[in-house]
Amino acid sequence: MTIFVCEDSFEGVLTGVYDAWASHIHRKQLRIEVGPIGQREFFAEYVPVSANSEKTEKVMRSIHRKISYYAYRQCMYCALSAHKDRGDAIYRFLLLGFTYGAQVTKYLQEPSVMKVFEYSRAYGNEAHYYREFVRFSSWNQVYISHISPKGDVLSFVGDHFADRMPSEHFIIVDDVRKKAIIHPKNEECFLRFLTEEEFQSILSYEKKKDNYTDLWQTFFETIAIKERYNPTCQRNHLPLHFRKHMVEFTS
């Protein structure tokens, strides 16, 4: 068994798909995994894969041309999700897609197609949740927010708020991956990986309160109806995982 170990990124996964395809190893004798690798298997050859933009572009063009844009979007969402076997699922999905074309997305009886569908849907749902549940605090006229997503949803969340808050300085920090979307006022937002010192410095501001924090907590308490308190229903609409950085639940 040959195992291609790719980087934990969209480019990394698509580069792994390209290298696996170019190796001409039979699909039953290879697998794609997203690093880092934990316990290694006996009698398996591990091939490290570094993200390559040129290879990524080639795979992207092939998906658009030979399958469809919808299939490409599903692969992208799947690659950015948190499922460990997402790389292998995408590879086997594309093997079918390059054979059957756009209709492959309807073959949900195929395990790889079903996995890509489920993983991309889970990623899309999480991104949608975070667009609703992001909470900002204000410091020196800069709005700062923290999220701890399972999938890599930061870019999608950042684009959402850049469209709605173009005239504000804001930073959204992914605490899991220690990177941030930074949006200067009336400019394009950009992605930056944070050093440990930068991350700890920004993290400290989350515990500070401001007028907006107090207003939001007051609003949350005011609209509550004690007679209709239903924690089970509340958890269905707002899972506990998303409450870590929400000021109304951390006061």
Structure notes:
The protein has helices spanning 10-22, 53-66, 69-79, 86-100, 111-133, 154-164, 196-204, 211-223, 231-237, 247-250, and strands at residues 2-6, 30-34, 45-48, 137-139, 142-147, 169-174, 179-183, 190-193. The protein has 251 residues and is α/β, with parallel strands linked by helices. β7 and β8 form a beta hairpin.
Give the tally of β-strands. Answer: 8
Q: Summarize the amount of helix as a percent range.
A: 40-55%
Classification by helices and strands: alpha/beta
Estimate the mean pLDDT confidence: 90
**Total DSSP helices:** 10
Quote the beta fraction: 15-25%
Rg over C-alpha atoms, rounded to the nearest angstrom: 21 Å
List the helices and strands and how they pair.
Layout: E1 2-6, H1 10-22, E2 30-34, E3 45-48, H2 53-66, H3 69-79, H4 86-100, H5 111-133, E4 137-139, E5 142-147, H6 154-164, E6 169-174, E7 179-183, E8 190-193, H7 196-204, H8 211-223, H9 231-237, H10 247-250
Parallel strand pairs: 1-2, 1-3, 5-6
Antiparallel strand pairs: 4-5, 6-7, 7-8
Helix pairs in contact: 1-2, 1-4, 2-3, 3-4, 3-5, 4-5, 5-6
Can you summarize this structure?
With 251 residues, this protein is of the alpha/beta class.
Main traits of this protein?
251 residues, alpha/beta, three-stranded parallel beta sheet, 10 helices
